[in-house]
């Protein structure tokens, strides 16, 4: 295992310390319990609180800031954060309008966020993200997994919350976005959790895992390596079969690297994706290409499509200022 | 070789097509010869034209846009672009104030940019970047290599050019920034050039290459894997010995991933870096963490320090709107 690391037990602490120091203009790192919160809070705004296992950076801490999250709770690598982190984060960023917990569907995350939701004294609601169309039920999930669609939910609902929408409106918007968002990924390589020190799974030199989860969970099938066009077609076929975008739909396309795949390949995958969509008369209205929901150093990528309406488009375009997503300000 | 690729010969073409489609609001892709240019040019502004082998994305194409480059000429992977690309790009973005070629010091790049400079009918000048302190003369270089410091030169000179500075002022500023910028990198893994199909170099499971170049060139030494603090200390010792920042110096720190290293590790490396600098009384004024000058999927990172003055600070902070660096607008 070759990583930038000093001691395995200190990996998360030191990484978060570096993150908080690099972005001290935007975020504050809380210790005991650990969470990252916005430096400047907006009175009367619904607070968006997310979190999950670490190893998916920039998700979620990199999206704390104006127009997205108010706080993020990082668990250990690939391990859910605890309810006390979530409750403390919610309390720290509360400015009177309640908390919206934004949760990717993984059993541990869901259980802990539900516990935090029940125990919190603040009004709260939850948006559960389950955009991964690869499999129903998985190693760590009942139902579908929540993956890179989280970035879209956090951006859009984060923008709505800035306008003064109430908790009910934010939750309804989040649920609507989730319903119109679908993803599927492919892994070329495995990854190593620091505390484990060995590869999460094995994969042959000529194999790929189609439908992989963001912790290396098995997908739909292990198959032979294929051309980018063929991989894109397989992922998009599954996504479009799920989303069923109507004629004239406008799509947000997110090409998401899993950590070890360089940007040049992600753009090539976008090129395959746009050809495939174009041939089916599906219009691309917005594009985001980058490694935003990762699995440590895993090579591979996921494709996410989100069927946009005008309100969603407006909230995608609105200003955002976080460590890893920034425009308009 | 597992990459998002269809045919080896089409890798660059398809990747650039995806890039240009994803960022059609900002850039235009020219074919025959290939270059990427700003969609909207500013009359009377010095045009910044850079380029180099592909495989280092987002460098340079990802930095075409307001506040940075006017055009970028991508060569094949790890191969210099040709003088005709450079001359055509310069001509395409000329708005009457001349061309500043921004060149990383590699023999092929330098030779071709010098040829373009001589053959171009437009007034032009060149800034040669040689920030890599690892080695004098290398596989592909006479003198020191130009690496991630290019991002800083392009951002700062790009900002100055927007203010209406003339060619001479832009060149002088670029030379001054280069003089105050130093970098060194470390590789944990090799990388595979698509056309070669095999690893550029071999490295053992417990080895690292200290001082590696961005094409996998040998560095100062091949040694056993070490803790992040020790790696940071070795890189920073070499960098600071070269830069000799005075008392009270304010530094821009760029922690640059080489392509296959996840963001969480880069923040940890920044944490090691800031501790080391703090212990020596060196102040960090600005920070940038990300994979901005890569070597395909190589795991590893480089550290760049730039000694800032007030003018440089102002130009770092100024608005920028490119595919891969954006703030203030």
From TrEMBL, chains A, B:
One Pfam family matching this protein: Dak1
Keywords, in A-Z order: Kinase, Transferase
SUPFAM superfamilies, sorted: DAK1/DegV-like
InterPro entries per the UniProt record, alphabetical: DhaK_1, DhaK_dom, Dihydroxyacetone_Kinase
Protein name, per record: Dihydroxyacetone kinase
GO biological process, one term: glycerol catabolic process
Domain DhaK positions: 7-327
GO CC term, one of those recorded: cytosol
């Amino acid at each position: 295992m070759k990583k930038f690391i000093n001691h395995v037990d200190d990996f998360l602490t030191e990484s978060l310390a570096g993150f908080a120091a690099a972005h001290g203009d935007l975020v504050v790192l809380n210790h005991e319990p650990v969470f990252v919160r916005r430096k400047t809070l907006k009175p009367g705004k619904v607070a968006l609180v997310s979190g999950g296992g670490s190893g998916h950076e920039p998700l979620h801490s990199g999206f704390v800031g104006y127009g997205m999250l108010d706080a993020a709770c990082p668990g250990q690598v690939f391990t859910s954060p605890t309810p006390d982190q979530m409750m403390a984060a919610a309390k720290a960023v509360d400015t009177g309008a309640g908390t919206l917990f934004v949760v990717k569907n993984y059993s541990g995350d869901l259980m802990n966020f539900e516990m935090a939701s029940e125990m919190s004294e603040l009004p709260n609601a939850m948006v559960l993200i389950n955009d991964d169309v690869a499999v129903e039920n998985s190693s760590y999930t009942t139902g579908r997994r929540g993956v890179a669609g989280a970035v879209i939910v956090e951006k859009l609902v984060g923008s709505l919350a800035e306008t003064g929408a109430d908790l009910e409106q934010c939750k309804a918007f989040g649920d609507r976005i989730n319903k119109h968002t679908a993803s599927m990924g492919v892994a070329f390589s495995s990854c190593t959790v620091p505390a484990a020190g060995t590869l999460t799974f094995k994969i042959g030199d000529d194999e790929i895992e189609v439908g992989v989860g963001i912790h290396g969970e098995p997908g739909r099938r292990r198959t032979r390596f294929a051309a980018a066009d063929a991989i894109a077609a397989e992922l998009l076929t599954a996504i479009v079969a799920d989303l069923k975008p109507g004629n004239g739909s406008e799509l947000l396309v997110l090409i998401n690297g899993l950590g070890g795949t360089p940007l040049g390949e992600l753009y090539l995958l976008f090129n395959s994706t746009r050809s495939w969509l174009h041939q089916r008369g599906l219009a691309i209205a917005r594009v985001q290409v980058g490694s935003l929901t990762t699995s440590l150093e895993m090579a591979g990528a996921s494709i996410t499509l989100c069927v946009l309406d005008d309100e969603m488009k407006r909230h995608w375009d609105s200003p955002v200022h976080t460590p890893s997503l920034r425009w308009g300000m």
